[in-house]
Design a protein that fits this description.
Radius of gyration: 18 Å
CATH class of the domain at 9-200: Alpha Beta
Strand content: 15-25%
Mean pLDDT: 89
Structural class: alpha/beta
Shape: globular
Number of strands: 7
Pfam families: TPMT
Keywords: Methyltransferase, Phosphoprotein, S-adenosyl-L-methionine, Transferase
Distance between the termini: 33 Å
GO biological process, one term: methylation
InterPro entries: SAM-dependent_MTases_sf, TPMT
CATH topology of the domain at 9-200: Rossmann fold
Number of helices: 9
Helix content: 25-40%
CATH superfamily of the domain at 9-200: Vaccinia Virus protein VP39
CATH architecture of the domain at 9-200: 3-Layer(aba) Sandwich
Low-confidence stretches: 1-8
GO molecular function, one term: S-adenosylmethionine-dependent methyltransferase activity
Length: 283
Amino acid sequence: MAEALDQPSEARERLRQHFLGHEPSEQTSQWDALWKAGDFLPWDRGGPNPALIDILNDRRDLIGDPEIDAAQDSDSQKRKRALVPGCGKGYDVLLLASFGYDAVGLDVSESALEVCRKYAASDEIAGKYPVRDPALGKGDVKFVLGDFFKDNWVDEANEDWAVGNWDLIYDYTFLSALPPSLRPAWSGRMSDLLAANGILICLEFPTYKPPSTGGPPWALPPTVYLQHLSRPGEKIEYDEEGYVVESDKTNQMALKRIAHWQPERTHDVGKGTDWVSVWKHQQ
């Protein structure tokens, strides 16, 4: 599911038709079929989004360092833990590990994970993910099969990496791959998984589409992120045209948006329309 969904209208319509008429419970098999066939992967951009690279390099003021603060360090944990749901071919997972995070890529498609494991073990990645901090070195990398909304992947990821223990979560094209009916569950799960001092990074895409065009990728203007993450787990009202109805309400699970900007660099498909939002729990 993961990287960018850069496709002309013909390919976008082909992708939409592939999912048309299938219930949310049938999404897993539909994604797996695309990965298994391997000849139509319009979301795959061949590498991580430049916006994420720039965030990891330049915005430590927001996201902190990949190493646990010495005052909080323990014998069992030195690095922060990062989760990439809908990891696709694994570009973002390898990038986060190169910055020093212990990174887990999660996907519901076994075929996708077969592809990303082969990629991670191939000569193709030589020089693409260099160690950013020689003193810290690379973090561990795991690719795990599982449903983001369930705990069926917890043991493989390591039990203490599950609910409430993720220091960084990155969402790019994961939410846009989900039917809108799953957005309350998405926001609730993000709030549950994120550590007390953790950071959620959302690269908001596609912000430019009218909701009437359907998906995937489903239209995601910034207000969708703001309304759902302000009230995780709650059903949010939409108008007749499919646009979210804005409200100032929050709930006890709310995540607070601490930064929001348009990145200088991103994949071509999102230039001029992508946004970055950074979130944390309300203290």
